[in-house]
Design goal:
The protein has 465 residues and is α+β, with helices and mostly antiparallel strands. The chain contains twelve helices and 22 strands.
Length: 465
């Protein structure tokens, strides 16, 4: 995958001024004025002989305050010559910290004291705003703040919001700068980016896996290509390199390229959270990393999501192969969200059988429980007519934590017994599936990518796919 995080830059546009209101400084002065009025009233009652002097002083101070506020309003309520633009990364990855930049320029003849904020979508967390800034004439500054995406999909930014002080700081005018922007929040694709320059063996080692060679079998030669960083020395074709005067590597592949279809459960169980990410987001991360490994091996990868939220627009992708496949997959799932309905395994299996006849490895990613036994077995029986089926089930770590809690009271005992019974019945279901020749992967959510790649590679090296 070629995923370049490029800056999405706006053109500078004129400021749009909004409502002008009193600043905190003016509000404070008005508060002092009210207190002075109460004190003067009390003094005129208790010290009548000074009432004339105090009254004249109060009227003079009041006229001075009103005159200063009016003059400051007339000279500062219009903000001209202020320009701004926002720079964002081209794409954002879920849970990954990114930096946004606001560039402000003052082309007016007077200095500006600003309170700078931004219209940030609710699905993004941010730190570093609002920020105070002093802009002298013909000065330009850049303000940086951090963004951490909390939800995938399209994130829409409004305009940059600025409060500009009047010359004496008694009034503030709200100003909007720049343009509205939209940026896509993808699943965490940085793990894929880190594998791009590595060979297959190095990629597997980076994910904590070890590639074992099949005895008596090798790899089929695929093509010659330019040397890439991470290629092993034995891949270098020295004769071709000498002829072309640059390093040339041999590229190999397994003897058979296959199709892999991910059936992704988007039902309500996948909304469960272990840590900051939901099971569904962990499933997407595992799907993308394992799909990338399969694509590098020359396999075609497809997707069928079911029970997704109504606002989701993706989730259906026929098997595709080649360098562009991972980008197609990313763009298909970035705004895919889990729904509130239960997973319909039988309906999903019927849909897949109707649209895909060719034999493939079907990987069903879900969160199994023992009550799914009958429906799941019916769906697997249907899929197994044409396909090799793998079930990847996410293990709820919160249940495991209940077993580790010390039993100090009756509630602890009840919770521990319920957790043990739940895991026992779930284990029986997994064993029942294995007895029906179903490949089963049972993994903690954060380790799903390792488990999927290990199971895929074991099948690939054994010749079953």
């Amino acid at each position: 995958m070629t995923q370049t995080v490029a800056a999405a830059e706006q053109q500078a546009v004129p400021a749009k001024s909004g409502r002008t209101g009193p600043s905190p400084r003016l509000v404070k002065l008005l508060g002092y004025w009210c207190l002075a009025s109460l004190a003067i009233t009390a003094a005129r009652i208790w010290i009548p002989q000074t009432s004339s002097f105090i009254g004249n002083l109060w009227w003079g101070a009041s006229a001075l305050l009103i005159g200063a506020a009016l003059l400051d309003f007339l000279t500062g309520y219009r903000v001209t010559g202020l320009q701004g633009l926002r720079r964002l990364p081209g794409n954002l990855a879920l849970g990954v910290r990114n930096t946004a930049r606001l560039k402000l320029r003052n082309t007016s003849p007077r200095p500006l004291l600003l309170q700078v904020s931004d219209s940030i979508p609710q699905q993004l967390g941010s730190t570093g705003l609002p920020r105070s800034a002093q802009l002298n004439p013909d000065q330009e500054i850049t303000i940086e703040y951090d963004l951490v995406p909390r939800r995938r999909g399209s994130a829409s930014f409004g305009r940059i919001e600025v409060l500009a002080n009047s010359p004496w700081g008694l009034w503030q005018t709200r100003v909007w700068l720049g343009k509205e922007q939209t940026v896509k929040v993808y699943p965490n694709f940085l793990g894929i980016s880190s594998l791009q320059s590595l060979s297959t063996e190095q990629s597997l080692r980076l994910m904590g896996l070890h590639q074992q060679q099949r005895r008596g079998e090798g790899m089929d030669f695929r093509q010659l290509r330019e040397y890439r960083q991470g290629d092993s020395q034995r891949q270098v074709d020295w004769r071709a390199s000498s002829r072309l005067r640059k390093l040339i590597s041999r590229e190999y592949q397994d003897e058979r390229d296959q199709e892999i279809i991910y059936m992704l459960d988007c039902g309500r169980r996948m909304r469960a959270k272990d840590g900051e990410l939901s099971h569904f987001d962990h499933a997407l991360n595992g799907l993308l990393l394992s799909a990338y490994v399969a694509i590098k091996q020359g396999d075609a990868v497809g997707l069928q999501a079911f029970a997704a939220a109504q606002e989701s627009s993706g989730g259906q992708l026929p098997p595709v192969k080649g360098e562009s496949a991972i980008n197609l997959l990313l763009n298909n799932v970035y705004d895919l969200h889990s729904g509130t309905s239960s997973a319909d395994y039988t309906g999903a299996a019927q849909h897949l059988m109707a649209h895909h006849k060719r034999r493939a490895l079907v990987i069903l990613i879900t969160n199994l429980r023992d009550e799914d036994s009958d429906e799941l077995l019916a769906a697997i029986k249907l899929l197994s007519r044409n396909h090799l089926v793998m079930i990847a089930s996410l293990r709820e770590t919160s249940v495991d934590k209940l077993l580790k809690q010390p039993i100090q009271n009756f509630d602890n005992a009840i919770n521990g017994a319920a957790a043990r019974d739940f895991l026992r019945r779930r284990e029986q279901l997994l064993q029942h599936l294995q007895a029906h020749n179903v490949i089963v992967v049972d993994s903690r959510p954060e380790l799903l990518h390792q488990s999927l790649v290990e199971a895929y590679w074991r099948l690939k090296r054994s010749g079953r796919i």
